[in-house]
Amino acid sequence: MRSRPSRLTLGLIAAVLAAAVAGVLLGETLFSPEQWRRAFADPGSGPGEVLWQVRAPRTVTALLVGAALGLAGAVMQGLLRNPLADPGVLGVSAVAALAAAGAIVLGAAAVPGAVEAAALAGGGLAGLLLMLFSARVRSPEALILFGVALSSFAGAATALIFNLSPSPIATAEVMNWLLGSVQNRSWVDVAWVAPAFLVAAALAAAASPGLRMLSLGEETARVSGLPMGRLRIMALLATAVATGAAVAVAGVIGFVGLAAPHLVRAAVRGDPGRLLLPSSLAGALMLAMADLLTRVTPTDQELKLGVFTALVGAPLFAMIAWRAAREWRL
Fold first, then answer.
1. Does pLDDT of 20 surpass 90?
2. Cα angle: 320, vertex 323, 325; to 5 degrees
3. Bigger pLDDT: 187 or 127?
């Protein structure tokens, strides 16, 4: 049965590569054969700029953000032993969004990288608070309640920023950013999210034995001999880094971290350790395809990626939940 996840992983890698190629080649503007020739022969030409400086970094950003969210969702569901957990449950997304919104309102958006740095700092702060709480209280239920309280507070503070914003333009910028998008992202944004994702992936891989042991129950994990306290902290840190990086470059994008692990869980028989890589690939595929659809959908104004994933993803997740409920009844 070990070959099944391998086939799944290879299939997902092939699908991600196909989505990446489609994301670069397809878009709102249709190229003529001559424009295609110029784009590949001369990357500095007009068509070449569209392909390699507009579409390519946007596609790579979508892939990395989706992979980060899928990874964070898999880690959270394993850590909390709750299939409904996602990066937003523990408040990491909300605190990162709050920090970015504050930076925008204070005028820091004019400084390159300031909003991204603020979002990363917010995600790191949320991760620190969660780690401090987890060090004192080991119950996953208590951690969920603390995360919900943290998320609610950050959401209320973000609403307060809207209420007290001195400029309608700043308010519109915050709203536009919170809806989530990878539009107009550059290779600089790729440079922001790629290292953070790699760090989060390494932390998640190191924490995977603890996630696997937790799936057997809290008592079994306690007597397993593994350093469960350290592994929990590593899992929380992986989630904070991955989610903070995703929010930093793309704003708040929901559903991906919740749904991606569900799409591949059956193939790995629910093993939290073996779920990490397929969930990352599934998240990357989901967000890349969603971004491509937002580009080619004929609308006067391009749909925001966070709105699109919620509109398309919520019915899909309802179908997954319905199928799971049928299996439970059987």
1. yes
2. 110
3. 187
328 Cβ contact list (under 8 Å, min separation 6)? none
- CA neighbor of 283 nearest in space, from 195, 175, 201, 178: 201
Give CA–CA dist 254/305, Å, rounded: 9
Asked if pLDDT for residue 187 goes beyond 90, the answer is: yes
Question: Token digits for 205?
Answer: 């891989």
Chain centroid, CA 111 distance in Å? 25
* The token pair that represents 36 in the structure block: 């295609």
pTM (2 decimals)? 0.88
pLDDT for 102 beyond 80:
yes
Q: In this structure, which amino acid lies at residue 74?
A: A
Average pLDDT, integer, range 13-20: 96
CA 233 to chain centroid, in Å, comes to 19
Distance CA 217, CA 305 (A): 37
Beta-carbon count within 10 A of 289 CB: 19
The pLDDT value given to residue 236: 86
CA dist 62 and 81 (Å) reads 28
B/e letters for 170-206, b = 16+ CB within 10 Å, e = fewer, are bbebbeebbbbbbbebeeebbebbbebbeebbebbee
Domains and CATH numbers, the chain: 3-329 (1.10.3470.10)
Collapse the DSSP code of 252 into the 3-class scheme (helix H, G, I; strand E, B; otherwise coil) and give the result.
coil
Give CA–CA dist 239/127, Å, rounded: 8
Tokens of 234: 């590593």
Spatial separation of the C-alpha atoms in residues 273 and 181, rounded to whole Å: 30
Tokens of 69: 């969210």
Chain mean pLDDT for the chain: 85
Query: Helix 56-80 and helix 256-264: axis angle, to 10°?
Result: 70
Token pair 């891989």: residue: 205
| 180 contacts 250 by C-beta, under 8 angstroms | yes
